[in-house]
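Ticket #4471: structure output looks truncated?

Reporter: J.K.
Steps to reproduce: submitted the chain below (91 residues) through the standard prediction queue, then opened the result file.
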Amino acid sequence: MQANVIRRRAPASLAELRKGEQGILDRLDLPEDVSRRLMELGFVPGSPVVAALSAPGGDPRVFRVDGSEIALRHDTAVRLKLRPAASAAAN
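Returned output as attached by the reporter:
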């Protein structure tokens, strides 16, 4: 007898990561000036990002990247896209 297994689809953006879950940043779908600033903070495509704490209401959330903890609002986190699970596993 097989147990029913519910599979969660891989997170597509930082906003979808659960606390403690890691993803590999693929791209930043933001205006150039905002993208540049986030890249200065460590949000560079190819970098691993870990979801950490969040404010009581869930926004903003803290993400660990390049040895730092950075808080991002949901509207920003949803526009930082992660690599699909297959390519993330290949690295």
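Triage note (M.O.): checked the attachment and the full token line is present. The first strand starts at residue 22 and ends at 28.
Status: closed, working as intended.
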